[in-house]
Amino acid sequence: MTKKIISILIILFYATSAQAASKLDIVKKNGELRVGTTGDWDPMSMKDPATNKYIGFDIDVMNELAKDLGVKVKFVPAEWKTIVAGITADRYDISTSVTKTPKRAEVAGFTATYYKYGTVPLVLKKNLKKFPTWDSLNNKKVTIATTLGTSQEEKAKEFFPKSKLRSIEAPARDFQEVLAGRADGNITSSLEANKLIIKYPQLAIVPDGGKNPAFLAMMVPKGDKVWNDYVSNWIKRKQTSGFFMTLEAKYNFKSL
What we know:
Elements: H1 3-20, H2 23-30, E1 32-37, E2 40-41, E3 45-48, E4 53-55, H3 57-69, E5 72-77, H4 83-88, E6 94-95, E7 98-99, H5 102-105, E8 108-110, E9 115-124, H6 134-137, E10 143-147, H7 151-159, E11 164-168, H8 174-179, E12 185-189, H9 190-199, E13 203-205, E14 211-217, E15 219-221, H10 225-241, H11 243-250
Parallel strand pairs: 1-5, 1-6, 10-11, 10-12
Antiparallel strand pairs: 2-3, 3-4, 7-14, 8-15, 9-12, 9-13, 9-14
């Protein structure tokens, strides 16, 4: 074997090793956990305008994960329409929770699930008699708003095939269209809906029950089994210890 071939093999070996390096090793080496988050999903991740800092259930989770890793946390701004691309483009090491969907799973990895929620419609409270059920919203004369890039955008096509669907691009939000009278309803997670009806008493949840239970997990790079296993096992340990139960009580979560 010539020296040239040996040199090429050595280069290929180290290149392969570098590519195979897990995010777990990289995060620990850099001393920093980069977390992609939208900051517009109450109560999971919200950006406090007074302090310009992120707050919420998922923010507490990520702070705890970084603490246990022995690193600092860096929250990286993301948008729903590009949150998956942020993982594939290596803009962050992990995301705050998103809904597991087959489309997202094609390009990104998902950790173990740590919460289940339902999907619910919101309408103006004064219109509840007009829209008492999901079926009443499935009408060609009805406009349903969704936020671009969210899992609810896809669900709206399934639940309301007859309705006019309007996708709203962040930082604007779908429920704002309902408040402004530009849409008859919107669909969102039961988590956010329970917060919105308190913040905006003119909104109401259509009392049909949460449909199509969805599962929340963190996104990580697809194929990085070491990193995925570490975070998934961490989630399971924290579930056993009562950490997540404490957070659910703190944020007044309602189980399905």
